[in-house]
Amino acid sequence: MTTMRSGIMKLLFILFLSGLLFACQAVEAPQWSEGGARAVGNGQQTRIDEDFLMAYARHLAQTREHRGQVTADSVLEFVQNMEALLAEARAQGMDQVSEFQQAVHQFKTDLLMRALQSELVPEIPRESITDADARAFFDENLHIYTRPELYALSVLTIHDPELAQELQDAAERGELVMEDAAARHELALESHDPMPMERLPAVWREVLAQLQPGEHSPLLATPDRQAILRLDRIVPERVQDFEERKEYIRNDALYARYRQAWQEAYKRLRQDHGISIDPEVTERFREMMEEGGEG
After folding, report:
1. For residues 48 and 87, what is the distance between their CA atoms, to the nearest angstrom?
2. Among 121, 145, 181, 294, which residue has the fewest nearby CB atoms (within 10 Å)?
3. 202-231 pLDDT tens trace
4. DSSP for 20-53, written as a single string
5. CA angle, corner 147, sides to 191 and 239, nearest 5?
6. What is the pTM of this model?
């Protein structure tokens, strides 16, 4: 299954670059006498008529690879090549794999979102977000604009186990000066600029959380070395200055309005089209998520 899924992702890349959106769906094709054509593979058909081919011609004419070289024969060959690719995917059962179905579904909805946006969610002028609106958004979302505590530290690396223990003992007595030890024993001493705790290795985070500025950690062992940390300073969390970030905050407030408008549009569309997911499927999915499964 892993090999097949790897192949599916490669196939999707080709399909998406080629713009094959609706061709992935099995649609009943008209009879030849009605002016249409059909490509048949494994019992599935894609409707191919002259309008479909002209749409492909316009698409190919805009691509760098085909610009200036689009002819009727080249379009016909290209579409048939893509149909052959789709037929091969169906023959291998790729279109029945969940990852394939999800990726095609997402690709279609992303494209349709762009196509329908002006109708569903009209443009919101940035100028409509006043300074007062930006300030209100800032005050309501201070957590977004609060910088976390930052930790500056130094790391002394020791390869000799006996020396490591000697320096650890000195640290416990409050006699260790990392800079002197590094110079005397030719050890590597690294200074790290202030950074959020989550960016540090997990084992460091556990130790640093117990230290005050100026204190040293116990020996931290890795397969080939040991290290002692020193917490140099803590930069307290702070709220960003509104005036300095006002224009960025204005953008955030604008995006928030768009998100709200889309939520309202989706709610209306679900009601208009009676969209729902089978309750039994919903329940099984919730159980899988609670169990940490991916299905």
Report:
1. 15
2. 294
3. 889 999 999 999 999 999 987 677 999 999
4. -SGGGS--PPPPGGGT-EEEEETTEEEEE-HHHH
5. 135
6. 0.63
Across the chain, mean pLDDT equals: 84
Q: Determine the residue type at 127.
A: E
pLDDT bucket at 143, cuts 50 / 70 / 90: very high
Report d(CA 133, CA 287) in Å as an integer: 41
Which range (45-49, 52-56, 125-129, 174-178) has the least confidence? 45-49
Q: Which CATH number fits domain 147-239: 3.40.50.300, 3.10.50.40, 3.30.420.40, 3.30.70.270?
A: 3.10.50.40
Q: Which residue has the tokens 């004419």?
A: 61
CA distance 273 to 198: 44
Q: Tokens 């349709």 appear where?
A: 112
**Whether 227 contacts 158, CB under 8 Å:** yes
Return the exposure string of 157-192: e unless at least 16 CB atoms fall within 10 Å of the residue's CB, then b.
bbeeeeebeebbeebeeeebebeebbeeeebeeeee
Close Cβ partners of 208 (under 8 Å, ≥ 6 residues apart): 151, 153, 197, 200, 217, 229, 231
CA distances 260 to 14, 114, 129, 244, Å, are 34, 17, 14, 26
Contacts of 270 (CB under 8 A, 6+ apart): 276
Name the helix (H) or strand (E) containing 154: strand 150-158
Neighbours of 82 (CB within 10 A): 19
Q: From the CB of residue 59, how many other CB atoms can be counted at a distance below 10 Å?
A: 15
- Work out the percent of the chain whose per-residue pLDDT is above 70: 83
Q: How far apart are CA 254 and CA 109, in angstroms?
A: 23
